[in-house]
Amino acid sequence: MREPSAVAESSPVAVTQVQEQTRPWSETLRPYLYVAPALLFFALFFFYPIVYMIYLSFQDWTLLNLEEMEWVGLDNFSTLFSDPDFHLVLKNTLIYTFLTVFLGIAIAFFLALWLNRKAKIYGLVQGAIFSPHIISLVSVSMLWMWLMDPQYGLLNAMLESVGLPPSTWLADPGTALYSLVLVSVWKVVGYNTLIFIAGLQSIPQDIYESAALDRSPAWRTLYKITIPMLSPTIFFLLVINTISSFQVFDTIYIMTQGGPVNSTNMLVYYIYEQGMDFYNGGIASAASVVLLGLAGVLTLFHFLFLAKRVHYR
Amino acid sequence: MYRVWYYPRKAVEWVLLIGVALVFVFPFLWMLLTAFKTLPEIYQFPPTLLPEQWEFGNFAKAWETGPFLTYVLNSFLVAVGILLLQFFTAVPAAYAFARYKFRGRNWLFGLTLIALMIPPQIVFLPVYVEMSHFQLVDTLWALILPYGASAFGIFLLRQSFMQVPDEVIEAARLDDASEWKIMWRIMVPMAKPVLVTFGLFSFIYHWNDYFWPLIMTNSDSVRTLPIGIWMLKASEGGKHWNMIMAGNVMLVFPILIVFFIAQRHIIRAFIYQSK
Amino acid sequence: MKKWKTNLLVLAVSMSTILAGCGNQASSGSTPAPQSSQQAGEQPAGDKKAVEIDFWYALSGKNGEYIEKMVKEFNASQKEVIVKPAYQGSYYENHSKVLAAVASGNQPDVTMVEIASIGAFADAKVLEDLGPYANGEESKYIKGLMGNSYWNDKLYAIPFNRSTPLLYVNRDMLKAAGLDPNGPKTWEELKQYSQKLTKKEGSKTITYGFSTPIDIWFYEALVFQSGGKVLSEDGKQFMLNSPEGKAPLEFWTGLLKEGIMKAPPGEKYNAWDVAKQDFLNQQVGMIFTSTGDLKGLVENAKFEVGAAFLPANKSYGVPTGGANLVVLSKSSDEEKKAAWQFVKWMTDTKQTIGFSSETGYMPVTNEAVESADMKAYYEKQPNFKVAIDQLQYGAPRPMVPGYKELQEVIMTEIQRAVLGQASVDDALKAAEEKAVKLLKK
Fold this sequence. Notes:
Distance between the termini of chain C: 68 Å
CATH topology of the largest domain in chain B: MetI-like fold
Oligomer: heterotrimer
Structural class of chain C: alpha/beta
CATH architecture of the largest domain in chain C: 3-Layer(aba) Sandwich
């Protein structure tokens, strides 16, 4: 595990070059041929669909009448933004994302500080908290549905055994969204923790040693050294977690289907419903463009931040 | 003074450590325990910890609700098919990005990075329409092709190729090895740890995938395991959680066992993403 | 040790490479890979090649198994047609699957469609006009079940697994409470029964008298019972923001406030599952659910199950429900002909009698209801006759194309009212606003 730093960071390691002048055309072509298959896949299944989706968002269409689309300009977007349900969907998505990202990172940060030791037990605990991350969301969702069953679920049994009132979990509009947050935090915390540990291990030890010589108190070391040194890691996790929270679908589809009363309806589920259930292809594409925009802005931030950081090195 | 408190402190920490581990592991144990209970026992409150009467039939019942052998095989074909495609597209691309200077390189690499950051689920609708045009909906190809190239794989391999010392390549060139040969015979073997890492990541990710098969498949002959498991929810007169959990055990525990064996590799595979 | 693990991994990876080689071969070709022959029944050896058709269904558990069994019988009964059945999840899931599959051109040839969605599919020209195939034969089906079969005066759907909602009662529990084991007949009685059946221990309710999923289907029923309608006759007006639309919600919220009714948690069919599970576990005394659940409930209950009409408000009243069989217009002529042959067989008197007695769904032909077999069965199992008797108070479900989306809007709003998130008035007003937009489309 090395420093979890930049995606874009790539101090160009000696690029082997064939002499420019004498290079035959087949050699000039070679790198393009090498990247062609991969880029062909990206073009076919990623970039072209993005362009097509943007085009679709200006059309009135359903899956059933793809041949008879009608250009409607920005109508889909205005319908979308005037729909109170979509406002609710955006609000749910933002609350869910904020809580998942914040809790997922905060809990992982403290776990990482604690578990970043050599002894075997710490490695085992790291493995344990990481294990949910590699499990299919289908199983995670079904498992938690069962744990959160309001009548026979383990969680309510545990609450009652310590004298607390049972919770409604997924059954009540007031608690359903937070229950989904709980599930995704449970799933992502291990990953975040291990990323933090990798980050901690890349901080040069001599900085800590000099801090120890200065008799700097622990909280001060944390505040003055650890957190600043981890800021690229924190930033990376913010971006990754935010993008993945934006597109939450599996847990909603399996556990709540957007309910009760739309309290867990979020962007990708909304797109799915509009596109696949309600025949509103235009609305679905417009909502997809909104989602793409959100993810795009975040990605841009990420790269700008990295570019700046690399620059200052 | 410290000495006196060392062991009690250590004991408290161990209790806390085990407690934290249980928060993450116990749900899986609960899944396993539930899978061995009888239906009446499922509907007891408060629930029992260990099954009062071990019921082994739930697994067979779950297995019989659909052609699970086909599901397993499909999951396997899809995950391996994707892995192979990704391998054969990523190696040359990564080699070119790592070892050649060519016009548009940064630009093309930038596109790859965008594909790395923005998940493909966002474009499921247009891809579905596209697959319809190709007549590929409800085939395994619809599950494999969209993931044919992995930006993550290219990125990872590129890093690893850049670390191969120049002398190795120069030596090979002196031996008149072709570029093609250098790539496959020298670079790839040297990147073996990275390839294992990437392979595990890709395999687990696609083995677990639910969204894409949900959208793209309609018939049992091409459905994958996560879809089959999800269909266990169907019921009459209440959910049969013991049977549902038995099905999930089949999906989850193989992965957990592999994880236990190859923990180091797998963790690296997932953590590497941040590199 | 480490070395061993690495070797194992390399072995695993290389093995999978080999396997994948085979797999890719197997799955080349653009059609779904393995043509499992056992699924399609015996391959008819012979002269003319049999027509293969795909049939999608949306029933699970025992009911689904019985459908699979019927298909096998059909395949064995003749040599021209081979039907390949595929389960697609609940009605909702089947609906989106059919829609998406039509778009991608690999739609089934025959599918079950929930009756309120027939209009949407017919309007989108997805369905084949069955008139020329049936050629007047459709008169054999029970008239009360044909209400959701026509769109613009053309026959598009044949009744298959048809239902009405029923009131299920735990007779043992009712007897123990000194109540008539045949169950309540009116809303007022339902309330009284619920009061008597509800048992509390301290602040915790051990048994609820009554439970129903807050589902559009039961809401429609209570609206009908109050003399109301969901939509006007021409399908353009939303009629629920009215005293008839409010009465059911006020009734339910009243029972809930009193603590004698339980609104089962969960979305869509998850709530139904909870209601049935509570009923079987004797945690509620009476529930509403479909007659299609009859067989499953009777078999799994450890007490005497009774079925009855839904209690009346101004009158009795229920929507019919379940699904019809449709043939898709995109299929080839040959497939359509084969599909019709299959539909005809599935809904014929002999088959419908078997299906009805094995599930609880209603038989769909007049002949079946009159038949000696069915009568003998009703003699033994009077519960199975309740739905058919109730049909005299039955009405079709709305079937305007937008109703698929509208019904989810209504469901969300009535749940808001029932869960106390909004007043009854506000919820129905909100539903009306959205409905006006949807019905304009």
